[in-house]
Amino acid sequence: MHEPRLTADQFPREVLSLFDQYVHGLIDRRAFLDGSAKFAVGGMTAAALLDALSPDYALAAEIPVDDPRIRQEYVEYDSPAGSGRMRGYMAWPSSSEAPWPAVLVIHENRGLNPYIEDVVRRMAAAGFLAFGPDALTPLGGYPGNDDEGRAMQRELDRATMTEDFVAAAEFLMQHEQSTGRVGAVGFCFGGGMVGTLAVRLPNLAAGVPFYGSQPAEEDVHRIEAPLLIQYAGLDERINAGWPAFEAALQASGKAYTMHMYPDVNHGFHNDTTPRYDEAAARLAQQRTIAFFNEHLR
After folding, report:
1. Domain range holding 165?
2. Is residue 168 part of a domain?
3. Span between the terminal Cα atoms of the chain, in Å
4. By the 8 A CB rule, do 268 and 277 touch?
5. What is the reported pTM?
6. How many domains does the chain have?
7. Which site in 29, 55, 116, 263 is 20 to 30 Å from 271, CA atoms measured?
8. Residues 162, 151: contact at Cβ < 8 Å?
9. pLDDT digits (tens, 9 = 90+) for 185-228
10. What distance in Å separates the CA atoms of residue 231 and residue 234, rounded to the nearest whole number?
11. Distant-in-sequence, close-in-space partners of 133: CB < 8 Å, separation ≥ 6
12. Rounded CA gap, 192 and 262, in Å?
């Protein structure tokens, strides 16, 4: 039995801001502990605050691995312009026959963790061939915890990782069980990568970036995929880039919809941490699946 899930409103805003900086490599663990020490009251140490904010992956099981609606396996694919041979997690519907429209699921800045694998299964249960590549493959793959995963991902070259995700999208487009119509959804780092793929791949059929950094303004004209852009209302760091991105999208006549979810934090879709917001996450997920149904089928 789990204790009741902690929620973001149980933490001071300053601590949430420090945690956001920590998980995105803007400060180190010591800086988080030092900065949050003054908020450690009532027997709660700064280290305990960090532990409380960190993922509990036992919670990441919206679609269990033995759910009868899906089948899944780990597969490899070639990334000749990137890391060579890559690995990821694939799932597909068990109740219908191939081919299916496909969804590429792109992880945060810490590798293919259990939360992202669960998102892959959610997409499969919704009727898609879903695939979540692991950018950490060249270093042995996701190590089992996010702290190590973040450190490992920082060791990788961003341009090489980009080529690995481009190759993953092309792998899905050419997969024998795919219709060839591929959408991409990503979170945090993965949200930024969705934007990059939309710039790089004119045949990407749809993109759904969650609280990701925006493409360079001068590249926006190259985007062909319709975008469903999902932001957290309290995410000042990422949201600061939206006005310029919106202006570039409008100037180029691009198809997009943006949803700003009020009073929720960066990472609100990740159901393994206190930043999770159930109402916003469920609405965002419903919108994501509806968007893919509209543009991939």
Report:
1. 59-296
2. yes
3. 41
4. yes
5. 0.94
6. 2
7. 29
8. no
9. 999 999 999 999 999 999 999 999 999 999 999 999 999 999 99
10. 9
11. 77, 86, 87, 88, 104, 106, 107, 112, 164, 165, 168
12. 21
